[in-house]
Amino acid sequence: MNWAFVDYENVGSLENLDIQKYDRIFIFCGPKNKRIKFGEFPSDRFCVVEFISVNTTGSNNLDFHLAFHLGRFHEIAERTIVFHIISNDEGFNGLVNHLKTIGRGCKKVLSRPIMAEQLPVLSEDTKLVINGLKPLDGRKRPRKKASLMNWIKSRCQKLANATSHESIYKELLNMEYVQESDSGISYKFIH
After folding, report:
1. DSSP letter string over the chain?
2. In the chain, what is the greatest distance between 2 CA atoms, to the nearest angstrom?
3. Cβ–Cβ under 8 Å, residues 47 and 19
4. CA–CA separation, 5 vs 109, rounded Å?
5. Beta bridge partners of 11
6. What span, in angstroms and rounded, lies between the C-alpha atoms of 14 and 112?
7. Most exposed: 46, 109, 131, 150, by fewest CB within 10 Å?
């Protein structure tokens, strides 16, 4: 029996996680994790998924919460249960080794990166627009659709293929790099 402890803030997606390997999954989310991306769910068995939302921010804050709960569950879970820490963070290596020395089956599982062929293909002009938006301070990025369209339009004159600002905006929406809401535009490609 395996339980997964997911550092979602670090891995950003569960699309490549083989959920069928786990009887329980604990997903640790920070305040910026508004949506969880899952892969295929098991079709012939149950898997309990629990979310542990951490509303505060800070360096390694989510990691401390995960380590705390890992210790709690170590004390109450049967010794036959193996813990998997799903994270690319090297900081968990010492904790994994410690749990092993005190008799708990434990290993760190790296989140497999999405292969290049699975990544969305963006036009060169849209990549240039994204690269122009990334370095801007969050308060200086356009927050309304009209402002963003004007920002893109002003840059389209300089773009190699002279792609229309409407098509770039649509591509940003379709690829979910930006999202529209009643409160304005939010950017998903900037962490």
Report:
1. -EEEEEEHHHH--BTTS-GGG-SEEEEEE-TT-----B-PPPSSS--EEEEEE-----TTHHHHHHHHHHHHHHHHS-TTPEEEEE---GGGHHHHHHHHHTT--EEEEPPPPPPGGGSPPPPHHHHHHHHHHTTS-TTTS--SHHHHHHHHHHHHTTSTT---HHHHHHHHHHTTSEEEETTEEEESS--
2. 64
3. yes
4. 10
5. none
6. 9
7. 46
Tokens of 1: 């029996």
For each of the chain's 191 residues, which pLDDT tens digit applies? Answer: 999 999 988 888 888 888 888 889 999 988 887 788 877 776 677 778 889 888 887 778 889 999 999 999 999 999 999 999 998 888 889 999 999 999 999 999 887 554 444 445 777 788 888 888 887 877 788 888 888 888 888 877 666 555 677 888 888 888 778 888 887 888 776 44
Nearest-angstrom CA–CA distance, 103 and 105 = 7
**Alpha helix positions (H), 102-164:** 124-133, 145-156
Does the pTM of the predicted model rise above 0.85?
no
Classified as helix, coil or strand, 26 is: strand
Query: In the structure encoding, which two tokens stand for residue 43, read together?
Result: 């079709």
Nearest to 3 by CA among 95, 67, 80: 80
Whole-number Å distance between alpha carbons of 65 and 140? 33
Structure-block tokens of residue 177:
């790099």
